Amino acid sequence: MTARHFAGLAAASLLAAAAIAGVAQAAPPSDATHSMQGGEQAWINDPHMHAFYEATRAAFAGGPAKVDVDVYEQKSFAIFRDFAPAMHMTPAGMVDHLKLIPRQVVQIVREDPHVLDSYDNFVAATFGPR
């Protein structure tokens, strides 16, 4: 299984885990239900995911050999922590859930730099087709 497959599986499990976490974590009571997908996979359009893409582009700006993976991973984790409340998760829970994604994305982009040509390419390569 390639890094791309692992990233896709992790993204799919993000949807399931966030749905479970929204019920399992202390959250204000609400009569409304929350959907990770928002009918159109709303999380894909979330500004945090666009920030993750831009952080990835910035990390690779000097070329694949010059990526500081540890710095990129920490920047990704910061984005994931900020993203957590939008998905009704705790920041620590979101980072724990997505902890493998940054290094998998590094591998994906090293295998195919065109992944960074557009946000749509990035989403398809890292999270699977819409």
What percent of residues are in strands? under 5%
Continuous helix count: 7
| Major sheet | none
Global morphology: globular
Q: pLDDT under 50 segments (min length 5)?
A: 12-40
Q: Averaging pLDDT over every residue, what do you get?
A: 78
Task: Please provide the count of β strands.
Answer: 0
* Protein structure class: mainly alpha
The rounded distance between the terminal residues' Cα atoms is 20 Å
Give the topology string: H per helix, E per strand.
HHHHHHH
How much helicity do the residues have? Answer: 55-70%
Q: What integer value in Å does the Rg equal?
A: 15 Å
Tally of individual domains: 1
In short:
With 130 residues, this protein is mainly α. The protein has helices spanning 3-24, 42-45, 47-59, 69-83, 91-98, 101-111, 119-127. The protein has one domain.
Tell me what you see in this structure.
- This protein has helices at 3-24, 42-45, 47-59, 69-83, 91-98, 101-111, 119-127.
- With 130 residues, it is mainly α.
- The protein has one domain.
- α1 (3-24) packs antiparallel against α6, α3 (47-59) packs antiparallel against α4 and α4 (69-83) crosses α5.
- 30% of the residues are buried.
Key traits:
single chain, 130 residues, mainly alpha, globular
